[in-house]
Amino acid sequence: MEEEMKQSKFKRICVFCGSSPGKKSSYKDAAIELGKELVARNIDLVYGGGSIGLMGLISQAVYDGGRHVIGVIPKTLMPREITGETVGEVKPVADMHQRKAEMARQSDAFIALPGGYGTLEELLEVITWAQLGIHDKPVGLLNVDGYYNSLLSFIDKAVEEGFISPSARHIIVSAPNAKDLMKKMEEYFPRHESVASKLSWETEQLGYTPKCDQMSLIRTPPNMRTGDYLEGMISDYVGGKAAKLKAHKSSSARLVTALTCLQFAFAVYGTFLLYYMSPAVDLRAKPDFQWATKIANNWRQFIITPHVLGHYQESANSLVQATIPLDVCEHEKIDFLQKKSNDVQMIKMKRDLYDEILNFQSKSVGTETLNALMAMKSKWDLKGPNRPKVTVILNHFKRKTLCAQLDTLLQQTLPFHHVWVLAFGSPNELSLKRIVDSYNDSRISFISSSYDFKYYGRFQMALQTESDLVYILDDDMIPGKKMLQILSHVAGTDKYKNSVLGSIGRILPFRQKDFTFPSYRKFRSKEAGLYLPDPAYDITVDKIVQVDFLSSSWFLSAELVKTLFIEKPFTFMTGEDLHLSYQLQKYRNAGSFVLPVDPNDKETWGDSEHRLAYVSETTVIFKDIVQVRDDQWWKALSTGYITQWAAMYPQKIDALFYAHSVDEVRALAPLLEKFRSTVGKKAYLVVSGGHFCPCEDAATALKWPKLVCKERRFKIFDLAIGALSGISDSEVPVVQAVYSSMKGLIKIHNPSVVITVADIDTNVKKALKMASETILNGTRFVLLPRPSISKVLWMADLRSTALPNWNRMRLSISIITQNRVQSLMRLLKSLSDAYYLGDEIPISFNMDSKVDEETIRLVNSFEWPHGPKTLRRRIIQGGLIRAVSESWYPASDDDYGLLLEDDIEVSPYYYLWVKYALLSYKYDPQISLPELSSISLYTPKIVEVVKERPKWNATEFFKHIHSNTPYLHQLPCSWGAVFFPKQWREFYVYMNMRFTENAKANPVQIPKSRTNGWQASWKKFLIDMMYLRGYVSLYPNFPNQASFSTNHMEPGAHISAKDNVVKHDKSDFEVPLVKDDFKTFLPNGKLPPASKLPSLNLFNQPVSLKGLKAAGAKLGQDVLKCDNQTEIVTVDHGTGVYSHIKPFINLSFSFDKIKRRIMVHTLLKYKNDIFA
Predict the structure, then answer these.
(1) pLDDT tens-place string over residues 777-833
(2) Number of Cβ within a 10 Å radius of residue 377
(3) Do 368 and 267 belong to one domain?
(4) Residue 442 contacts by C-beta under 8 Å, 6 or more apart in sequence?
(5) Which residue ranges run through the membrane (predicted)?
(6) Shared-domain flag, residues 364 and 297
(7) Do 456 and 381 belong to one domain?
(8) What share of the chain is helix, strand, coil (3-state, %, to 5)?
(9) Which residues on neighbouring strands pair with residue 532, listed in sequence order?
(10) Are β-strands 139-142 and 109-112 bridged in parallel, bridged antiparallel, or unpaired?
(11) Whole-model pTM over 0.90
């Protein structure tokens, strides 16, 4: 048994078999048994490349056993013989002849399983080659259930009849099972005579050198793998089979002698010529043999062919005899100790920062030890059938570590699929190639080019792999023997499948106290970030840690490599490591992680000699390189890269402005500057960059110094949209760049609003909208028409908590009209001239049955660009009370109704007033003002509820507080007001319960109010409800009683022409409209806090909000009976239904006492305000 399990003399065996499994199960069992036998003897498999039939069974068995599998298949047969995924290495060839030649070249012996014509043809070909002396490799028949008995009988018959020599009969070895067959083949020794042993030209093509040629100068290395040269050799061999060499006979001895002399002379000449054509020889330094030098110069380009990506061609050095690694390997001398710091302060700073990062990550994403990672369920299984294919890419220039890397890779617990050694512009190209050749492993390829592809070349090569995973290593990394297994397992877990893994990484700088970011190389700075692991400060990675980018090694799926090339890098000089992590996060939401290690097991280390990588990463480098890398990581952070600092310290700003052109920068400038100059507010500008809007041009437009585009401080972000690879007429690259960068910036800075101009490019608008909505942090996307921007500077005065509600409310305009077409035209023109901030504003026309023809024509022809237009006409005349009260009903709690009769005219600023007030008093979570039920556009000039109707001037009345302070009033406005949805629902229910045509029958009689006698007035019922509930309206108060609406008091349903002349003076009702920005008139240039708003009762007397409620309760005339001393009616504002009664105040106080105390408190408050 021990003898059978000893190391086989065969490294690879070629197996011929059928693409069909055959009818007997014994054939399939034999294929699997043979595969296991090869594995037991540490033999690799060469076969026909198919994934079906016996080919598929044996290849899977060998692959599952951990041995290398090489499949050689013509390209035309691939669709037929490969179904699903193949295992091992697949070598496509042009035709069947090349297939046999390549299989023979790769193999040390041949075995035939049961098969059909193709199997027999391949078998007889290699038997013929052995008979001709082209090779002396054993040829075996696995004679399963006597399958080949008839063939062996036929061969014996041919020997008997004299067609095959008896010695040639021994070329074939046969046995009924795999174990016996392998034993015979191990013992095989060729006994037959070669029929044509001088066919050395064919011998060379198969990579086989007979013993008689050992002294020959020309010897083709047996490990020639990829390249045009090799392909040409095989093609020549295949073509040569049809045209046999003809021996030229000479009958003249003189001719033979002459030819012999000429051959000798040419051999001498050739020796010198080959010597001088060697790449190692400097032709300029050789004064002699001018003729040879000249010829060598002229022909060198043809002999030493330029290397190309993916292939190399054998140069003159291929004539040198093949070597083994021991002969050519060089090793890096590590004659220095690992750097250790003795700076106690720095050790503490670095350690504290690392602990802070690890603590954050353990709470946010979770961190695992190496054992915990290996215990996680993984897609890839070392021992199971789903084993990953890993291509390892080694990038070499001058360092002498290739042999150390190859040695450890060949000993990995998970075998690699391929190793590609790259030498781009390397002065050591030839020595590196010799090292690769010496390993004589078809899985290891050498790829070189005289052009230096810099740091991105290895990733460009990674795009060519067909493997599942790619492991890219710098020449300073010597991984432990378990690294491929560990990396593959982690990459197969659900948590880390979309990640790039490595062994060394960096945490980019944190923000300093002065709000700037330091260089990543700043000395003695905690904020400069971390290098992990960092032996100098005793920082080892014992749990997986997310970093901002990886250095020296990268392990990721082949699919993720493509992401690196979505955008043009900031520079090709350096920084491919950061660019990879940045692009992966930006476009794949993928993270970068440094894996933990077992400190007691070097085989788990990604770099067993960390000194090499550490020195190259941490020693002093050129200042300009540091500057380039600083610029690069700052550019990434400025375009949405969420670094560990950004994840740990999410920012909160008020506004993020976006401009795609310099004109847009100028348009947004007033509002941007207002935000930036307002205490407590933060706002930054994002520009598209590139040729659309360079940062420097934007800074000039804002009158900022151009230095802001260079300093590492948040103020202006240049997205460099032109950095997308290539030039395209499609909108996709721009949309992709804006969306991906803005998504990151929004996630980092959490702005309450993203603001841009309404007429921005449509595709950019879509990208901004999508980015704002994707991040679920409450950010709202605001599109401002250019003419409105300078009119909404009050936006910066809103609380940060109110800004996210910018787009939440909706104003519905409801116009009540019948037969005043001129009045309606005036109203519609004023509405059309107003500023609407890009919001959607639906408008509806409510007409009674007797509407005139001119009004209908006007309404039909009116165009409203701000939202949908709706027309309603009653069949039966309902009168004004129904026309108004039924004109609007809220669709949601964010739907507000503006009710306008056609004799009203509005100011261009009316919508700005409404929106500003709603955001300040209803949509600020920090403000509670439930009593507010409407916002008036109009400022009254008389006290209309008192019989005498005295004139009243709010500016004069509040001059001791502030002449133009807005105020709260218990009287609702019917000449232009916005009504709130909750209170309007309640009003509907109240009207249903209390409506009566007879004013005297109304149970609510407010003391001393002339509204008690109003007939059929919807406003009378609204006044009653507001009085009972203690509700108030917000009123404007500007010089000369300027308002956002005015009432022209034209004859209509309530006011006849006769009444208008006798009882109503238009001067008491008409007020001037606000024509300029009203913000400057407000106290301190903004709306005062809700707690500072003065409140008036129905009779224009100052009463607190609590006092207003107390007065309503005292009346005792509510819709539900209750004790007016102790109880109050409550309302379900979702339906407007009065639901139940609840306790109101303490019984020990009377309402009169409460009222007196409120009045005293109010007067004292006003007095304090005056002295203040």
Answers:
(1) 889 999 999 999 999 999 999 999 999 999 999 999 999 998 899 999 999 999 999
(2) 10
(3) no
(4) 68, 70, 89, 106, 223, 225
(5) 255-277
(6) no
(7) yes
(8) 40, 15, 45
(9) 505
(10) parallel
(11) no
